């Protein structure tokens, strides 16, 4: 996620979005050039002595996936690290890394000489590290006061043990501007009929119903997720993600077919647009709604007070609208970290309501996972996010967090883009995904 | 030349080589120096070029996510190659795009750069200024070039669409984005070629031109009949640069959309498959090997030309 301050600058959002990811090119080049054995070499150098050693009172190394300049997301982590250092009287060495760089190096990082505690995501991506023994079993940290069963579930790997401490989450929903809806007399829809009526009305008012962007490849995954959950249900979605269903099945084709029907109500040419640009076009009333995570606020910060959202309406009454994407962010303990005991102590603190309060001083759309956290400082968007997620029966993480990351990035991204380019070739797209899926999920 | 003199016994022992200069034996110290001087660079080449290249080839027959030791690698035979060719949709477009890149770079910016060099070589007024202006983009990294052109190309907020009131999705529409990116590359490549060629032109002996002028050759004749053939070494360098640039093209498309949707290039596909959590080292290596094979073809052609020239 890039967090540019669009409203304040004359430079197009797309450009700002690119600035943050420029460093990737270097990374890409380096990794591409040295793709051989670098990780195994680093693994050999890394401390194997990290097993059980370390003294709880020693310094804890804290790996952060945000660097200064990243705005609120970075501030939160700094605040919570400082609060812990003060409370426990230990030194917390922060290792601040740019978000994309952190993501791209994670394999090498964890096998080399990682920090003790590091920022990570719940779900499949946590599970894969747990299975590979790269992160430490922290089931003795659980249960944590204020974190209910669903969070415990999200922190549990396939071996039934916990490897993760959740700190916050944000929902994906349909955002709109309250003032625009009021002025034009629109109302949030709850089913397909109402949605269609609303979209047609918007079009007659010369407003594109949905803002849409997929230049970076991942935003369209959010649309696929929600359509699949509305049409085929949460359970089917999760087993599709796990690789247990066929991608060229009638169910998946149905999703693409529905999507094709909705595309005329979406902004044209999404493949050249960044989500920041799409957010801007909702901001200036060219578009009426935008399906995105709450970080959409970062794209149009001046309009935060005017933003509201509704969960995507139901498409099939037998399925309902009870599931949504709400990715959970949190922390793991690296197995090769040198201070395991100190890391666990810190993780214990990070799960508490106190830590959530320490973090939640900046303005940010994230909601604290801990139910004991002070919600009085929340903005309206945060309060509503919390309600919506609590009301949801099933929560998915997001396509690239629920399935193998190599499959998501090297297959799904190009195929979804191909579909958006030529929505009529559903058979070709689904067949190609299925073939590649069979090759990757061994 | 060293002071060592030929040993007569050796010359008589090998009458066949009599036509060649007689063999010399270096003193032990000189020999040690020569051996060290050959050994160290060889070692570097082997460790930094051959070992990784061979390991890439080995790895391309396996499936490995880079986690754990090498014993985690599952050997899958030629499956990676079969998958690339059969079921990996970005592959063939990538090959095609690399070739388009090569042809375009050569026909467009390379010829334009050479033309600009010839024009600027005529010492017209303000030629310093033009040189600087054309060379300026070369100083910028390709990443930055992509960033600057985004200001022109953005569909909703870009300069081109604003000025002409058009709605072309320059970076997003897969039928135009390759050309949009090529124009951005050309902007930088032209200045690069221009500078190299200009340097070459300055090195051409002025008396050759004078002689041609005395013989009554026109400007055009002078260039094509006299200057261009004399510049042969520079022409070769330019050709090699164009080939290298188009094979390793990567940064610009990576900045734009990470090499998807109409901007597939082999280099970008390799990176997509090995960068980040999505580590398909085997698959990525197979792509890298294919890229290496393609490069080898060009290297072979180049070496043949160079050797043929030396023999002459």
Automatic annotation (TrEMBL), chain B:
Main location group: membrane
Regions annotated as coiled coil: none
Comp. bias intervals (Low complexity): 1-21
Record bears the keyword Metal-binding: no
Transmembrane segments: 32-55, 99-120, 132-152, 178-201, 222-244, 283-307
Subcellular location: Cell membrane
UniProt entry tagged with the keyword Transmembrane: yes
GO biological process: transmembrane transport
One Gene Ontology term, aspect cellular component: plasma membrane
Keywords: Cell membrane, Membrane, Transmembrane, Transmembrane helix, Transport
Membrane topology annotation: Multi-pass membrane protein
Gene3D superfamilies: MetI-like (1.10.3720.10)
Domain (ABC transmembrane type-1): residue spans on this chain: 95-302
UniProt region (Disordered), positions on chain: 1-23
PANTHER family in alphabetical order: ABC TRANSPORTER PERMEASE PROTEIN
Family note: Belongs to the binding-protein-dependent transport system permease family.
Full protein name: N-acetyl-D-glucosamine ABC transporter, permease protein 1
Organism the protein comes from: uncultured Nocardioides sp
């Amino acid at each position: 996620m890039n967090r540019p301050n669009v409203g304040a600058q004359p430079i197009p959002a797309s450009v700002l979005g690119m600035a943050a990811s420029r460093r990737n090119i270097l990374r890409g080049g380096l990794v591409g050039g040295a793709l051989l054995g670098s990780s195994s070499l680093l693994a050999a150098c890394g401390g194997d002595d990290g097993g059980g050693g370390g003294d709880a009172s020693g310094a804890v190394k804290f790996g952060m996936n945000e660097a200064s300049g990243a705005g609120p997301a970075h501030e939160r982590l700094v605040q919570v690290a400082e609060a812990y250092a003060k409370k426990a009287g230990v030194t917390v060495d922060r290792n601040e890394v740019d978000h994309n760089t952190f993501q791209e190096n994670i394999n090498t990082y964890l096998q080399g000489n990682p920090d003790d505690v590091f920022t990570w995501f719940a779900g499949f991506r946590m599970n894969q590290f747990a299975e590979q023994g790269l992160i430490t079993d922290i089931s003795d940290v659980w249960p944590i006061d204020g974190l209910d069963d669903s969070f415990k579930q999200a922190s549990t790997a396939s071996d039934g043990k916990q490897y993760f401490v959740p700190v916050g989450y944000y929902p994906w929903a349909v955002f709109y501007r309250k003032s625009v809806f009021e002025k034009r007399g629109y109302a949030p829809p709850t089913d397909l009929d109402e949605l269609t009526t609303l979209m047609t009305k918007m079009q007659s008012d010369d407003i594109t119903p949905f803002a849409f962007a997929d230049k970076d490849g991942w935003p369209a995954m959010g649309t696929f997720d929600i359509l699949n959950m509305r049409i085929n249900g949460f359970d089917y979605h999760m087993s599709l993600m796990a690789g247990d269903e066929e991608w060229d099945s009638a169910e998946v084709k149905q999703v693409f077919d529905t999507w094709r029907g909705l595309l005329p109500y979406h902004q044209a040419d999404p493949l050249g647009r960044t989500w920041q640009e799409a957010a801007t076009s909702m901001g200036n009333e060219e578009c009426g709604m935008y399906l995105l995570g709450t970080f959409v606020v970062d794209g149009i910060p001046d309009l935060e007070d005017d933003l509201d959202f509704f969960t995507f309406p139901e498409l099939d009454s037998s399925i309902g609208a009870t599931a949504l994407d709400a990715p959970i962010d949190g922390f793991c303990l690296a197995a090769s970290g040198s201070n395991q005991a100190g890391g666990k102590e810190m993780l214990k603190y990070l799960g508490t309501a106190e830590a959530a309060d320490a973090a939640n001083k900046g303005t940010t759309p994230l909601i604290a996972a801990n139910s004991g956290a002070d919600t009085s400082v929340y903005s309206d968007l945060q309060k509503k996010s919390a309600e919506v997620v609590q009301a949801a029966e099933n929560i998915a993480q997001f396509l690239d967090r629920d399935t193998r990351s190599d499959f998501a990035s090297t297959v799904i991204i190009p195929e979804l883009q191909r579909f958006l380019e030529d929505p009529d070739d559903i058979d070709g797209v689904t067949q190609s995904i299925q073939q590649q899926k069979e090759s990757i999920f061994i | 030349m060293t002071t060592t003199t030929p040993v007569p016994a050796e010359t008589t022992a090998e009458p066949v080589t009599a036509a060649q200069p007689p063999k010399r034996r270096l003193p032990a110290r000189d020999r040690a120096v020569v051996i060290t001087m050959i050994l160290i660079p060889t070692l570097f080449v082997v460790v930094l070029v051959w070992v990784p290249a061979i390991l890439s080839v080995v790895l391309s027959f396996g499936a490995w996510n880079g986690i754990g030791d090498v014993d985690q690698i599952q050997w899958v035979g030629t499956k990676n190659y079969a998958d690339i060719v059969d079921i990996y949709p970005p592959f063939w477009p990538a090959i095609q795009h690399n070739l388009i890149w090569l042809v375009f770079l050569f026909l467009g910016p390379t010829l334009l750069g050479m033309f600009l060099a010839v024009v600027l070589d005529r010492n017209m007024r303000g030629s310093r200024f033009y040189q600087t202006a054309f060379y300026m983009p070369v100083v910028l990294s390709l990443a930055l070039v992509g960033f600057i052109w985004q200001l022109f190309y953005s569909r909703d907020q870009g300069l081109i669409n604003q000025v002409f009131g058009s709605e072309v999705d320059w970076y997003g529409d897969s039928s135009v984005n390759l050309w949009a990116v090529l124009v951005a590359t050309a902007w930088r490549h032209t200045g690069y070629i221009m500078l190299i060629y200009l340097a070459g032109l300055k090195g051409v002996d002025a008396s050759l031109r004078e002689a041609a002028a005395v013989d009554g050759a026109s400007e055009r004749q002078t260039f094509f009949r006299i200057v261009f053939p004399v510049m042969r070494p520079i022409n070769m360098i330019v050709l090699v640069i164009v080939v290298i640039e188009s094979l390793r093209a990567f940064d610009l498309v990576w900045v734009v959309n990470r090499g998807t949707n109409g901007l597939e290039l082999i280099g970008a596909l390799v990176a997509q498959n090995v960068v980040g959590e999505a580590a398909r080292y085997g698959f990525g290596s197979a792509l890298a090997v294919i890229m290496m094979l393609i490069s080898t073809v060009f290297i072979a052609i180049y070496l043949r030309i160079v050797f043929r020239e030396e023999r002459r």
